Amino acid sequence: MTKPVWIKHASQLATLALNGKGPRVKEEMSELSLIEDGSLWLEDGVVKAVGTTAKLEEQYGERENEAEVVDASGCLVTPGLVDPHTHVVYGGSREREFEMRLEGATYMEIMNAGGGIHATTRMTREATEEELMEQTMRRLDSFLTHGVTTAEGKSGYGMNIETELKQLRVMQKLQEAHAIDIVPTFMGAHAVPPEYKGREDEFVDHLIKEMLPVVAEEKLAEFNDVFCEKGVFTPEQSERILEAGKDYGLIPKIHADEIEPYGGAELAAKVGAISAEHLLKASDQGIRAMADAGVIACLLPATALYLREQAAAGRKMVDAGVPVAISTDCNPGSSPTTSMPLVMNLACILMRMTPAEALTAATYNAACAINRQDKVGSLEQGKQADVVMWDIENYQKLQYLFGVNHVKSVWKKGIQVV
Ligand code: NIG
Ligand code: FE
């Protein structure tokens, strides 16, 4: 039996608790439900009580000596961060491409010449399951030290059945092997593999007829994602793949309008995607369609920075009523980072979101983007005891003192892991 944990005297406790279940929009994104001199009682893996320290003294004062008492004075306490978009399971790395891009090559040129996603696919196909486990574990450790307690993970560096399943099985095993909860997404449609070059529609047929049924039958994924981009999958092909996934109970997600405007945001609304990702080049019409359909914009400002592109119009999307989440996009090509705090900083600096909006986007709205809002993303009675204590007094400092990791301690399901 693990001891209960009593976190006391937090300078600021941002619970993110709000009535209502859906993702937060507009002004709701600024409501952090702050408590001064805040306290949390964690027991049996869940939050048992939240409030001021005075209130918890009344409720739990008698049980103080049973608990591990943590003095959080001078600290901000928040829910564990949620990263709703990662490609964390991959083999190898691509530092040479980083140099090539600085020398002038574009991301798509490198990919079309057999590098980029194709290079990682080769390395991931070659890696054993054990090697992938080992490499992914190290990245997850880094996520945890940066305050992330739940992360989505995509396949998509296999693009053949064996390797797609290998990636998804690694995620399944990591559920047991690592403290972070991983939420799996099938992304067989990450690129057209070289063996299908010039036969794109045949690959789409193969993915729909051969891959999707196996992934669904083995219950290896909850979501189905497509890279809808000029030169990768057209909106028509993407729609076929996402609709087919729906027949197997897989919820659509879509990498949309990243490099060129391509109608991805509009398609996300049309197919009822839970989220659309990137959206650097999303049209005004697409943004409106997403707001109307309640599609979450999962924005990836670290990717924009790393590709030296103008970030998505985060400010405009929040103002238009689109629920916004943010994510690292952790992957070996366009965003090799495991730092959600950096992503929050960039959401403010590059997308003019406010510090409060950035925190909502990295917690509650991020949880909504992977359908986990009933368990994580806010600190409320009965929810998972995933908590971060930061070595700063308030949430503004989290975004203001940028590029630094302020994490002091992390609890996952009530157990201290950092
Ligand atoms: O989200 N855009 C497509 N996929 C990834 C990059 C994958 C890679 O370069 O390996 C992304 O940016
Ligand atoms: Fe991505």
From TrEMBL:
Family: Belongs to the metallo-dependent hydrolases superfamily. HutI family.
Principal location class: cytoplasm
Subcellular location: Cytoplasm
SUPFAM superfamilies: Composite domain of metallo-dependent hydrolases (SSF51338), Metallo-dependent hydrolases (SSF51556)
Pathway membership: Amino-acid degradation; L-histidine degradation into L-glutamate; N-formimidoyl-L-glutamate from L-histidine: step 3/3
Catalysed reactions listed for this entry: 4-imidazolone-5-propanoate + H2O = N-formimidoyl-L-glutamate
Single GO MF annotation: imidazolonepropionase activity
Transmembrane segments: none
Cofactor(s) recorded in Swiss-Prot or TrEMBL: Zn(2+); Fe(3+)
Residues that, per the record, bind 4-imidazolone-5-propanoate: 94, 157, 190, 258, 334
Binding site for N-formimidoyl-L-glutamate: 157, 331, 333
Cofactor: binding comment: Binds 1 zinc or iron ion per subunit.
Organism: Siminovitchia thermophila
Gene behind this protein: hutI
Enzyme class: hydrolase
EC id: 3.5.2.7
Binding site for Zn(2+): 85, 87, 255, 329
Residues the record lists as binding Fe(3+): 85, 87, 255, 329
Listed name of the protein: Imidazolonepropionase
Keywords: Cytoplasm, Histidine metabolism, Hydrolase, Iron, Metal-binding, Zinc
Keyword Nucleotide-binding set for record: no
Annotated function: Catalyzes the hydrolytic cleavage of the carbon-nitrogen bond in imidazolone-5-propanoate to yield N-formimidoyl-L-glutamate. It is the third step in the universal histidine degradation pathway.
Ranges for domain Amidohydrolase-related: 76-414
